[in-house]
Amino acid sequence: MARVYNWQLGREMDYPYQEQHPKWQFVFVFNTNRCIGCQTCTMACKSTWTFSKGQEYMFWNNVESKPYGGYPHYWDVRLLQMIEELNPGGQSWNTRARSEKAPYGRFEGMTIFEAVKKYMGPEQKRVLGYLPSDIDWTAPNIYEDTAAAPAWAKGQYGVTTELPEHKIWYFYLARICNHCTYPGCLAACPRQAIYKRPEDGVVLIDQNRCRGYRKCVEGCPYKKAMYRPTTRTSEKCIACFPRLEGRDPELTPDGTPIEPRCMAACVGKIRLSGMVQIDDNGDWVKDPENPMYFLIRERRVALPLYPQFGTEPNGYYIPPRWVPRGYLIQMFGPGVDAAIEQYMCPDRELLAVLQLFRVTQQMLFKFKIEQGPKVAEVPVRMPDGKEKIQEIYNDTVIGYNRKGQEVVRITVEEPTYERPKEVHLNSI
Predict the structure, then answer these.
(1) Domain coordinates of the chain in residue numbers?
(2) Which of 72, 224, 331, 344 is deepest in the core (most CB within 10 A)?
(3) What architecture is domain 2-344?
(4) Angle 49-207-63 (CA atoms, 0-180°, nearest 5)?
(5) pTM metric for this prediction
């Protein structure tokens, strides 16, 4: 195995291939605090890419209710248990080792590429994983809206809506392929049929090379590679790469990148996607005016999903603020407390950038803020129980596309429009 650097873990780790990086990387941020579980994103993807025979069970995009839901069933719990059995009590973080190259500290445990060395089984593996059974794929929204409710057994009612943590809780987790920097599916494939595109980092499966061994299904810790029995090949989310290339003649006649279908269809405005530039060493080029860089690297309000797996996923989540912190730290790493604290009482700049979620189909590569007047002072109770005053300014945030053209201009305080009675019968 080669040694590669994983900035999410704050250290080098084992990986089957030498380090190699694209010039740009497709990344996205999902705000779990806003998701309403409407499944519009799921059906947008389904109707676009997985409507043919053999794809009936495929949901490249799905929204599952945590803590009990998952597709395939218990995909994360099973892998976490497998790693724990091979490295009991060792999956820990050293948060004192935080630095610019290790923003979350140093992960002292084993990744799926390192834990597999301790695996003893009938066949040799390069990635620790498992192959879901047919029954695991039967219900994409199993346990939907089912809460973790220890308080029910004790007969405690009336305390379920007290922040910072609810005693009865669940939240929606929207998922697509994370287009990882070190993909588990790519590492596991014996045919080398999986690759990352150098222009945008999107992970694809070469259908001509694939022989349907399902090693990618076994090796992907997020279970986003899926086997199609009618063609005997595997398929996965392709990040709607024709849209990233700006090849839609109606939506992007000038060739500017636009967001994937699941992003563009989002009703709850939880999604924002874009590109970040990668240098020759694999580091993100410092660009605080890029919305993705600002949210992920500058403010660290958006966190990777199960970074301890070691794939360096390029999907990031703003954690839900009402969920017990221990559960969230297991899922998103040790940056949870700082991320939630920022989100609960965002400063002037962060509040403006949060307005950019789902305001345009074009990908935003840059933003600028025009300052406006103060419109409110709101008391906010922080997770530590203390009260903080949030100052709200009616700033205007401007978003620019890849060509540097202004494509959106929106204010923090949404304007009210009164429809004229001469035109609209239901006007006020």
Answers:
(1) 2-344, 348-411
(2) 224
(3) 2-Layer Sandwich (3.30)
(4) 35
(5) 0.95
